[in-house]
Amino acid sequence: MNHLELQNRLIGLGYDLIADGKFGPKSRAALLQSFTDGRDTKLTEKDVSDAADSLGVNNAKIWTVWDVEAAAKPFVDGLPVVLYEPHIFSRLTKHKYDESYPTLSSRAWNRKLYAGSQKGRWDQIMRATSLDVDAGLSAASYGGFQILGANYKVCGYPTPFDFVHAQSDSERMQLLAFVDFVKGNKLDKHLQAGNWAAFAKGYNGPAYAANKYDQKLAAAYAKRSK
Prior knowledge:
Radius of gyration: 18 Å
Largest sheet: 3 strands, antiparallel
Strand content: 5-15%
Number of domains: 3
Low-confidence stretches: none
Shape: globular
Strand order of the largest sheet: 3-4-5
């Protein structure tokens, strides 16, 4: 999706813009507002039960991932909680912006490039999107399950924008994306078996052990199981 297409999508949603293909302050404000205007409704026990049945697990395992991934804080100030990843943006844009935008694009993972606040992280996303719409929205993880925007296809969305817009709507939409992600990556068998190391490797990547995701998941499940 280019900037003109994005503007037309936003106009279709009712935002007052001129479709000129230039991602200026007004376009940025409309895009951010489109992600703020969601319902932000909370998960219900039925939502979790339906997801658990779909994945063949108990409710506690759904809540376990929820607890670990975003400390059960799916929204902050009306926006889904996010983590922007400069190394993902760099990869998706073939390192085009590494030198000109070093705080947004880095060939190597660098924790120091993480903004310290949600406002700062959304600013990174908006700035990256001003350079490349799809890469900017794909290079962050969203919501209570912290699914990377680059996984939009496996979650059933035609574009990164559609994925982020859905994640901005409600906790239920975040849960549905989680179910599709787990099934699409064949992680349901690990979740069913309670094999937290295998699940974390597929869900969080090869650095899961260094970040102790498997241990965090095991501990959270033990707590939820009580």
